[in-house]
Recover the amino acids of this structure.
C-alpha cells in the first residue's frame, strides 16, 4: 500500500548496489496525500462492517431502520463505497510504475523484487483476514499484483484496451445472470424454483447474520476464529466478481504512472481543470441512480433494476474517484492548501499501518474479548467514530514520522522485501 521502492539482488546471492527505500527527497507529496484521503474513505466504508456481518449484504435483513441511520448509510454509499478502494487501486498501479521506472534507471531486476514484495503482502493480508478481520483487501491486492507484472511493459493502448475489457466483465456476468432469471421467470416452474432458491438463500444469510450477532460480542478470541474464517470464505467467493474491476484500475494507475501524470503534474493541470467538472457530473449522476435503486434491488436475486444499478455505479463510482484525485491535485498546487493537506500525507506514508490499526482498534471494540459492541453501533454513530478515529490518526502519524522513517508495518514489509532490516529511527 506504499508504492515507492525498488531493489536488486544478484542471482549469485551477492548484493550489487542493493537499493534502499525511496529517500525523503524522492517522495511525491501528492501521492502521499491521496493515500491519506483513501485511508479515511476506506474507514468510512469499513466502519459498519466491523460491527455487523457480511451476510447482511446478501439478505433482506435490516438491522438499522431509523431515518438518521438510513441517511448515514446512503451518504456513505454515495460518497465512499467503491470509490476509495478504487483510489487505492489506482495508487497501487501508480506505485508499481514508479518502482519500475526506478529499477529501470538503475539497471535493477524488477520482477524478483516486486514478486517478493507481493508475496509478503499476501501473507500479511491472509494473517489480517483470518486472525483479525474478515474484510481484508490486502490479499487480493497482492494476488492481482502478481497479475499486474504481466502488464508492466505493455503499450499504453494495450493497457487501455485491457482496462475496458476488465471493467466490462462484471457487467457481462451480471447482465447474463439477469437475462437468465428474467427469461426463466416467464415460465411457472422455473419461476417457482427461483423464488424457492432465493428464499432459502435469504433465510440462510439471515440465520448466519444472527449467529454472528450472537457469537462476536460474547465469544472469546478462539471461539470467534471459526466464524471469522467462514466470513473470509464468503468474501473470497466474491473475488471473481470484483477482482477484474480492481485490476482494471491498477492498469489505469500503471498507465498514468508510466506517463508521470501525477509525478510531474504541471503540464497536465489544464487537462485536469477541463475534466474535473465532467467527472463530478458523471459521478453524481451515476451514484444518484445507485442510491435511488438501493431499496428496489433484492441482494440475492438478479434483476433489471440491479443491472441498471451496476451499470450506473460502474460509470459513476470511478468518475467520482477521479474527481477526488483531480480536486486534491488542484488543491495541492496552492501553497496554503498544500500546507493544510500535508498532515494527510503523513497518514498516507503509513497507509498500511493505519489500515491495520483500524482493524485492531475496532475489532477490539466490537468483539467479546474487548468491549463486545458488535451489532450495537448504528451507521450514524459509525460516522462519528470514523471522524474521531481519523482525527486521532492524523497527529499520531505526524508524531510517529518525526521520530521514525517508516510506519511499523511498513518497516516490517520493507525489511522482509529487501531481505535485511531497514534503519528505523531518524538520525539525530
Amino acid at each position: 500500500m506504499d508504492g515507492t521502492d525498488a531493489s536488486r539482488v544478484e542471482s549469485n546471492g551477492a548484493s550489487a548496489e542493493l537499493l534502499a527505500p525511496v529517500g525523503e527527497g524522492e517522495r511525491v507529496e501528492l501521492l502521499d496525500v491521496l493515500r491519506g484521503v483513501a485511508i479515511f474513505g476506506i474507514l468510512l466504508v469499513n466502519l459498519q462492517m466491523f460491527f455487523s456481518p457480511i451476510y447482511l449484504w446478501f439478505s433482506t435483513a435490516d438491522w438499522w431502520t431509523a431515518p438518521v441511520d438510513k441517511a448515514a448509510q446512503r451518504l456513505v454509499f454515495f460518497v465512499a463505497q467503491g470509490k476509495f478502494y478504487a483510489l487505492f487501486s489506482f495508487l497501487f498501479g501508480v506505485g508499481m510504475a514508479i518502482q519500475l521506472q526506478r529499477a529501470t534507471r538503475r539497471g535493477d531486476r524488477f520482477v524478483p523484487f516486486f514478486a517478493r514484495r507481493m508475496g509478503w503482502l499476501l501473507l500479511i493480508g491472509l494473517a489480517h483476514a483470518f486472525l483479525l478481520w474478515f474484510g481484508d483487501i490486502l490479499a487480493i491486492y497482492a494476488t492481482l499484483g502478481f497479475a499486474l507484472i504481466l502488464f508492466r511493459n505493455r503499450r499504453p493502448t494495450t493497457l487501455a484496451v485491457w482496462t475496458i475489457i476488465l471493467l466490462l466483465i462484471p457487467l457481462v456476468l451480471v447482465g447474463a445472470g439477469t437475462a437468465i432469471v428474467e427469461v426463466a421467470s416467464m415460465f411457472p416452474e422455473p419461476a417457482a424454483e427461483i423464488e424457492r432458491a432465493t428464499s432459502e438463500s435469504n433465510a440462510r444469510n439471515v440465520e448466519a447474520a444472527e449467529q454472528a450477532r450472537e457469537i462476536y460480542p460474547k465469544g472469546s478470541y478462539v471461539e470467534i476464529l471459526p466464524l471469522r474464517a467462514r466470513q473470509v470464505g464468503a468474501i473470497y467467493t466474491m473475488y471473481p466478481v470484483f477482482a477484474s474491476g480492481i485490476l482494471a484500475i491498477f492498469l489505469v494507475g500503471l498507465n498514468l504512472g508510466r506517463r508521470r501524470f501525477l509525478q510531474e503534474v504541471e503540464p497536465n493541470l489544464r487537462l485536469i481543470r477541463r475534466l474535473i467538472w465532467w467527472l463530478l457530473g458523471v459521478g453524481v449522476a451515476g451514484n444518484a441512480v445507485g442510491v435511488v435503486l438501493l431499496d428496489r434491488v433484492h441482494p440475492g436475486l438478479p434483476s433489471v433494476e440491479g443491472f441498471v444499478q451496476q451499470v450506473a455505479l460502474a460509470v459513476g463510482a470511478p468518475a467520482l474517484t477521479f474527481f477526488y484525485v483531480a480536486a486534491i491535485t488542484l488543491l495541492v498546487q496552492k501553497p496554503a492548501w498544500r500546507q493544510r493537506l500535508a498532515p494527510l500525507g503523513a497518514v498516507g506514508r503509513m497507509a498500511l499501518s493505519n489500515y491495520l490499526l483500524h482493524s485492531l482498534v475496532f475489532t477490539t471494540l466490537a468483539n467479546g474479548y474487548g468491549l463486545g459492541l458488535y451489532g450495537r453501533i448504528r451507521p450514524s454513530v459509525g460516522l462519528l467514530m470514523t471522524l474521531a478515529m481519523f482525527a486521532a490518526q492524523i497527529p499520531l502519524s505526524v508524531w510517529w514520522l518525526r521520530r521514525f522513517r517508516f510506519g511499523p508495518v511498513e518497516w516490517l514489509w520493507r525489511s522482509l522485501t529487501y531481505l535485511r532490516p531497514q534503519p528505523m529511527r531518524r538520525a539525530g
Notes: The chain has one domain: 24-418. The chain has 14 helices and no strands. Confidence is low (pLDDT under 50) at residues 3-21.
